[in-house]
Here is the input.
Amino acid sequence: MISLAGKSVLLVIGGGIAAYKTHELVRLLKTRGAAVRIILTKAAEQFVTPLSLASISGEKVYTSLFSLTDEVEMGHIQLSRAADLLVVAPATADLIAKMASGLADDLASTALLATDKPVLIAPAMNVRMWRHPATVRNVETLKRDGLVLAGPNDGEMACGEFGPGRMAEPNEILAAIIEMLKPKAQPLAGKKVVITAGPTREPIDPVRFISNHSSGKQGYAIARAAVELGAETILVSGPVSLPIPPGVQMMPVETAQEMLEVCQGEMPADIAIFTAAVADWRVAAEAHEKIKKTGNAPPSLPLTENPDILATISREPKRPRIVVGFAAETERVREYAAEKLRKKGCDLIVANDVGRGSDVFGGDRNTVHIVSPAGVEDWPNMSKDEVAQKLMERLAQMLMPEQKAAE
Ligand code: CTP
Here is the structure.
């Protein structure tokens, strides 16, 4: 039996009929040695009582955001930070919607927004609510934010309907909790990974710039995967609208020149991965005042080439052990990528087809080809998170022989 001794779980109980099953979940967690603190939403208090849960958990049960004594004893921020894992069970449609939109109007939602810890949700609701486009959208958002789902299961519901929406059984939720809390292999512990992501922004004048559509999603997913494998992860990012992945060291930049300087400042590193869509050119002379319409011919903007960050870092004396580039191609993907590998001096090119209908820019999925001097490997269509995990595992393996030799 895997012990959870020394682990602390914050259980947020939502207001659904499945709330009664959380007594058993708390009991199972206690049997494994975990400390369980509990927050009840107002609606949950209609289904279970603070008193019964306090007696099973052996801890105070928290119910209201504005309880002054609770805030003095343990503030809502502290409550969520003190836990190793947050579990939301049952995660009602309402709680899921609140989490997806970042609402914080009671203790449960505030603790969930304030946390920097992993979150597991066990959804429970009527099948139609589960299948409603709003819930589907919200659950997708939560998955993208890195939350993990346990269930829901198919089955008969309290309302008499049948289908997905039944909360996972307590032993299934426990198994998911153990999976999330068990120590992970961290092959990149002690290693430094530098990742560039997003577009760069090249100013024309104080109000205008040249940029591109890069969403930064693939680079951010790689940063998350690097953190998970234990790496010291530096994310050098152009302007994007994505949350900073927990555990990464964020270095925000705007221009290609800044991106290069920050990357150089981060050397030496063990691995560098260049996912950024760096603008190839910048305006030769940035105007210091806004360029005005003159009524004459439109202004011409002479361009000058930006430094190639990947090629520069690849050829630095302090070159990282592994340098990875990305290539966005619309045709002859493998051929062009192989050429780029040689030209840029990197060890691996992750090539993706961004041709018509590929949905790579801004989308959540990617079909990539891994091009190395050893040949080309075609990966199936996967989520950007899966691509990131597979890629980081591959790079960790590539570092391994050197590590073994050093031991
Ligand atoms: N890259 C870089 N600095 C640049 C340009 C590109 O670091 N100034 C990196 C990107 O982050 C990516 C790879 O180089 O890893 C892409 O190379 P690039 O030649 O820019 O690719 P494409 O834009 O696809 O090239 P081309 O215009 O030749 O199709």
About this structure: The pocket of cytidine-5'-triphosphate is lined by residues 196, 256, 274, 276, 278, 306, 308-310, 325-328, 340 (CB under 6 Å). The chain has a mean pLDDT of 91. Residues 19 and 258 are 52 Å apart (CA to CA). The longest helix spans residues 384-406.
